[in-house]
Specification:
By secondary structure, the chain is of the alpha/beta class. Helix content is about 35%, strand content about 20%. The longest helix has 10 residues.
């Protein structure tokens, strides 16, 4: 069973099907845009993306011009792919696909603008500030529960594996309060794994690469 935000089918489902898995897609959440003025850019700023949804949100509000000429970085391959799909080439992808890993890769004393979800984790902020930099949040979307998710997930069960690509998906899944049976939960990276752990959700495996292909590969593995 693939969990995703409403209207965001695509790469993961295609990757799973290419590996021979039968896919049932369920929209656990919805992504809603957040209006507001983007922060002023200064010389030397870096714009950091920690989710593909943030990249898509800027594209949807026709605000990609805000990125023109800036140093743009991405937390991992999936986010980088979303940016490239909008014609924006990230200059940096850290070896560790977390906010903390991105902050470490950026180094000391940077001013970092962060297009993000309203409810995003604060690991990038903490890392930037620990390195003597300035962090500026730029909320561009929020994630809300899909009211139809409970019935859809209940109808899909039982399933063999549930890939989770974000902490918000993990939170939405657990909030349903359903018995997942023997389904293996696999996740796209350490940030989502940590969110699952905090929610009491057992993670069977973490993808080696934080991308749709990486998540599909670990979902398809028969033993972990």
């Amino acid at each position: 069973m693939v969990t995703r935000a409403e209207g965001q089918a695509g790469a993961l489902e295609e990757a799973l099907e290419a590996l021979g898995l039968e896919v049932v897609a369920v929209a656990l959440t919805r992504v809603e845009p957040v209006a507001g003025v983007l922060p002023e850019r200064r010389p030397g700023d870096v714009i950091a993306f920690t989710s593909a949804n943030a990249a898509r949100a800027l594209g949807d509000r026709a605000a990609l011009g805000w990125l023109a000429g800036a140093e743009v970085v991405a937390v991992g391959p999936a986010t980088a792919a979303a940016l490239r799909g909008l014609g924006v080439a990230p200059t940096l992808i850290p070896a560790t696909a977390t906010g903390a890993g991105l902050a470490e890769a950026l180094g000391q004393g940077r001013r970092v603008l962060h297009p993000r979800a309203v409810e995003a984790l604060e690991s990038l902020r903490e890392g930037v500030e620990a390195n003597g930099g300035e962090y500026v949040a730029a909320p561009v979307y929020r994630v809300v529960a899909n009211p139809e998710a409970a019935a859809a997930v209940a109808a899909a069960l039982p399933v063999d594996v549930i890939p989770l690509a974000s902490p918000s998906a993990a939170r939405a899944l657990v909030a349903l309060g359903l018995d997942l049976g023997a389904a293996r939960v696999v996740v796209i990276g350490p940030t989502t794994a940590a969110a699952c752990e905090a929610l009491g959700l057992t993670v069977a495996a973490v993808a080696k690469e934080a991308s749709a292909a990486g998540l599909a590969a670990v979902a398809a593995a028969r033993s972990v």
